[in-house]
Structure formats: C-alpha cells, structure tokens
Predict the 3D structure of the following.
Amino acid sequence: MNSNIHLDQPVLTLGADYQDAGAVVILLHGRGARAESMIPLAEELQIRGLRFLIPQAGKKRWYPQSAFGPLEPNQPDLDSALGAVEGLINQARQAGFSEQQIVLGGFSQGACLAAEFAVRNPSRYGGVFIFSGGLIGPPGEPRNLTGSFDSMPVFIGGSDLDPWISFEVLKNAENAFEDLNAMVTFKIYPGMPHTVNQDEIEQVKKIMQTVRK
C-alpha cells in the first residue's frame, strides 16, 4: 500500500510570481475534486500581490473516510495530506516568506485539512480560512491543544442546513482556534447549500489585505 499517496502530486500555481508576491495562499480542494476546480475561487479571492499554491490530492481526496469518525481509518493518507501542507509551507519559507505572509484555507474536505493542520501546528500565520469544514476526528473528542496563534485572523463559515458539515463541527473549530488565541470571525448562513458564497469571499479578502507585505 502506498503510505504517501499525496507525495509528488502536482501543485497548481496562480497569481503573482514569488519575486513579485507579498503573500502566499495555500488553497485546498474538496473530496472528489481537482486542483483546477479551485481556480474560480482563487480568482475571486485574488488581490494584488498574492501567489496561490493549489495542490492536487492523490485519488482526488485527502483522506478516504469521514472527517468526523475515528482517525485510524483515514491513515496513512491523513498523515500524507498533513505532510503535503507542511511541504508547501516550507516551500514558501524557502522562497523568503515568513509565516505571517502565508495564508492557509480550503473548502469542505480541504477546509478540514486546513483546520486540522493549523491547530496541530499553531503559529502566527497570515491567516486561516475554513469554508464549510472543521477539525478532523470525532466531534467533542478531547484534544491537548498547545501553542498560540498570537491573534491571527481566522474565518469560519458554513450553513445551518449542510448535510456534510454540522453546526457542531463548525462551532468546535471556532472554539479550538479561540482556545489557541486566534481572532475568529464565525458566520452561519441560513439555508446555504454546500458551497462558498460572496460574503465569505469578502470576509477572507479582508484577511488577505492584513497580511504583512
């Protein structure tokens, strides 16, 4: 069995070249999707001076089972996915960007991966955005959270009727980020389907504009 399913998968790049960029945005797609499917969202989020890194998941999913069940059935793919995110952050660092110039986010399964990576590796990133996602693992399972986001801005958004991402999942993510000293904007959109709406995009663009250039 391949223990590192996401290794050597392609990474789509969009926006400014490294030498012209003021910040790097790591954008993670959902289950069953391809990196190319995130291009319209990246274009909506684009403000001047951003470089987007959009990795492709092996088999078009970051982990095989539900995000909100036991962790073990999602291994080793989950560890591979977390490693892929870490690799992109290291790539941005090697290109001369500080963590405060790196923004991490995604949609659905990608949002769950972004949230999980961030709470496992808290630092003062430029920001984190979670579109219809939450922490990976059984909701309410105790976590030994340590470290601090040092007032990093976070946006968490979702629907009250989403069949995939419950209010409890969204709220648990908000609580975890706040416990680690993030500044969280949390918004529930009544009746919204499993998608990203324009207000969510505007909320995240506000974060992008605060990233240190």
Observations:
- The chain has one domain: 11-210.
- The beta strands are 11-15, 23-28, 50-55, 102-107, 127-131, 153-159, 183-189.
- The helical segments are 39-45, 77-94, 109-120, 167-179, 198-210.
- DSSP finds five helices and seven strands in the chain.
